[in-house]
Design brief:
41% of the residues lie in helices and 15% in strands. It is an alpha/beta fold. The strands form two sheets. It has a seven-stranded mixed β-sheet with strand order 1-7-6-5-4-2-3, sandwiched between helices. The structure holds pyridoxal-5'-phosphate. Pyridoxal-5'-phosphate binds at residues 37-39, 63, 107, 111, 136, 138, 166, 168, 174, 179.
Length: 323
């Protein structure tokens, strides 16, 4: 980026980035909108398509911003709890339709469990719902390529699907604030022309985002390393007695058994030892820890500290023998 380019306003709709993202995903440029992080796309979706007072559907637990955005829009949030295996319950669409939800958020892979909903199920859900379905694919880059998962073709068959992508997770560029949406032109156009700030992504961001997507083969090596480490961490956690559902994301959601102490206590003890994991003080997440997959060294460090903390919490340091 030259000094002269910085003196001028950026390309207003990031056309270079749009064209590149469109060609990568096999869609038209008018089916892509560039945003200031995925968060801006979520906000634009709500403020463009949901009138104040109209409902927003949320599968819980999930990304906390969904409900914040609903509140800001003065929209009641219709909350449907996920099933025990983190799948979408069969009657969710009916509940959302009965509440006349105008927009429904679906996180895929789900956060914080990492569960992946297959495209056929997303397609069925989109077909049943009277709402715009925002498929939040913030973590999709970590999905095992052997699964052949690609939700983008949904936008050609379903006028009510908007897919969120971000460079924050898979490209480790959270500081850049760059995300994008993919959807039917009829969904993208009102956000581009009505609700978006005129210059929502700067010239530096646009250039770096193009460079990031152009070198996605390099990023893909990291995704593969995360998947390898995810498998190793999952097995090691199971050996320690901490079960995790299969994850297609860059984190695992570990259940802390009673004999190993309270999840919150374990989280604090790990933090005291310089290891950061996440505890959510809500409902079915209270006995769980979200553990981000790091480098092999991070994994070894985490496992070592976890063993120490569990041993301190339970003097026997192992699951009690069945009596
Ligand atoms: C599920 C989910 N969606 C979207 C985002 C938004 O990310 P960003 O605004 O950095 O692109 C996040 C960030 O944590 C997330 O966890």
């Amino acid at each position: 980026v030259t000094a002269e380019q910085l003196q001028h306003y950026p390309p207003p709709i990031a056309d270079g980035f749009r064209a590149l993202a469109a060609s990568i995903h096999g869609v038209e440029a008018q089916q892509v909108i560039a945003t200031n992080g995925g968060d801006e796309l979520l906000r634009l979706a709500v403020s463009t398509f949901v009138e104040p007072g109209q409902a927003v559907g949320v599968l819980e637990p999930s990304y906390s911003l969904y409900r914040v955005l609903a509140d800001l829009n003065q929209s009641p949030a219709v909350r449907v709890p996920l099933a025990e295996d983190w799948s979408c319950p069969a009657d969710a669409a009916r509940t959302f339709n009965e509440a006349r939800a105008k927009l429904v958020f679906v996180t895929n892979p789900h956060a914080p469990s990492g569960r992946l909903t297959p495209v056929v199920q997303l397609s069925a859900l989109a077909g049943e719902l009277d709402a715009l379905v925002v498929v939040d694919e913030a973590y999709v880059d970590f999905v095992d390529p052997d699964l052949g998962h690609d939700a983008v073709p949904l936008v050609s068959n379903h006028e009510n699907v908007l897919i969120l992508r971000t460079l924050s997770k898979g490209y480790s560029l959270a500081g850049l604030r760059f995300g994008y949406g993919i959807g039917a032109p009829g969904i993208i156009e009102p956000m581009l022309t009505k609700t978006r700030d005129s210059y929502n992504v700067g010239v530096v961001g646009q250039r770096l985002a193009v460079a990031a997507l152009e070198s996605r083969d390099r990023a893909a090596q990291t995704w593969e390393a995360v998947r390898r480490e995810r498998t190793r961490l999952r097995e090691a956690l199971a050996q320690l007695g901490l079960d995790t559902p299969p994850s297609q994301s860059n984190f695992l959601l570990a259940t802390v058994p009673d004999w190993a102490g309270h999840a919150r206590t374990l989280c604090d003890a790990l933090e005291d030892r310089g290891v950061l994991v996440r505890h959510f003080d809500q409902g079915c997440l209270r006995d769980k820890l979200r553990i981000t997959v790091g480098t092999p060294t991070d994994t070894d460090r985490l496992l070592g500290e976890l063993k120490t903390c569990i041993a301190a919490a339970s003097p026997i340091g192992a699951p009690p023998e069945p009596s």
